[in-house]
Amino acid sequence: MMFKILSMPLAVSLALVSAGLISTSASAAPQIYGAIYINSDASYSRTKTSYTDGTPTEITSGRNRVLIFDDASRIGIRGSETLSDKVDLRYRIEWRNPFDVDKRTLEPRDAWIGLAHKDYGTIKAGRMLTYDAYLNDMPWGRPSYFDGIRTNNSVRYESPVIKGNQLTVQYIMDENTDGSTAGTDSLNGDGYAVSLSRSTDKYNIGVAYIDANADEMSEPRGVMYIGQPLNEALRINASYQATPTVKLAAMYQQNSHNGTQYGEAAKTEKAFAIGASRTLDKSVELYSQVNVFKDFNEYGTRYDDKFDIIFGAKKDFSPSTYAGVEVFYYQKSVDVPAHMDGEKAIKAHRIEDQTSGLSVYTGFHF
């Protein structure tokens, strides 16, 4: 019922367009857009594994293989059509286009159509990324791996920006009617997302919440958050323009999961980040960021504690081309309880890992 109510204005407007009752003479040609991102990392790691039963401590260290990898390159089509003085029809179709894998080329990212009213806001329907991913003022990026969920069967309302304030509400519809997993479902159940943000010349602040309640049947790349099905996610983002050239930022993320880790129920991840950036001129930016984690989730492996520190510099060569360099240090640890991994008994042990390195990156938008 909720889907039908939210979709009614969109369906009615499309019907009026088809009948010629709303003019679309002021149409714009679709725009082809995209981005190419290339990163390269060189790092050194040291891992210490100690046991509680007297088993000798294991220490491994050495250089990691230099990596060159894609960082979410994409290509898409977007556009808008004027329906009236106050209403535009908008659309976007976007595909993943990585250069370093064979299986995910032209994998769908976004595919939605919507109506934008100058006074009442925008409503979209289709496949889209939850709005929390757009609440990000951190110079290096959000601290957690989790950065929103991209789901099918979604309807989102985005309010107009009123005195810097905006509200978004998203409903992710469960299309199953017989308890089975439909091929178009992303969550295998209903989901909700809401965000509230305020932006001024001096500061930005925003909060977002997602109720996904995903399980093992969910779409792997939709909400299977790095090996653990997402249950709920909370994000708080804030930034302050201290001077014309200095910006301070902070973010808190809290992500809970369904599933198990080390034979126990998955724990709630908590991540906090602070960062600062300084613009030297119109094209060069220096930045630093510190991330602190509790129960960090990394590709299905939980770490009790994790600490990151990053220093970087970025240069814009043109409005569409940039490159940068970063030095980083990561430290993480976990006390693994004794548990069964399939038929294999795992002893209780502690893992301590330290990694430092250099990263070079570049990007091009069109």
Compose a concise summary of this entry.
The chain is mainly beta and 366 residues long. The protein is built from 1 helix and 23 strands. The strands form 3 sheets. Strands 1-4-5-6-7-8-9-10-11-13-14-17-18-19-20-23 form a 16-stranded antiparallel beta barrel.
Describe this protein's structure:
There is one protein chain. This protein is mainly beta and 366 residues long. 5% of the residues lie in helices and 60% in strands. It contains 1 helix and 23 strands. The chain has a 16-stranded antiparallel β-barrel with strand order 1-4-5-6-7-8-9-10-11-13-14-17-18-19-20-23. The chain has a two-stranded antiparallel ribbon with strand order 15-16. It has a two-stranded antiparallel ribbon with strand order 21-22. A hairpin with a 2-residue loop joins strand 19 (301-318) and strand 20 (321-336). The protein is globular and about 75 Å long. It starts with a helix and ends with a strand.
Q: Helical content, roughly?
A: under 10%
Question: Which whole number gives the mean pLDDT?
Answer: 86
Helix- and strand-based class? mainly beta
Backbone CA Rg: 23 Å
> Which outline best applies?
globular
Write out the strand line-up for the largest beta sheet, numbering strands in chain order: 1-4-5-6-7-8-9-10-11-13-14-17-18-19-20-23
Percent strand equals over 45%
Termini separation comes to 40 Å
Poorly predicted parts: 1-9, 12-25
| Assembly state | single chain
Number of strands: 23
Count of helical stretches: 1
Major sheet summary line: 16 strands, antiparallel, barrel
Topology order in helix (H) and strand (E) letters: HEEEEEEEEEEEEEEEEEEEEEEE
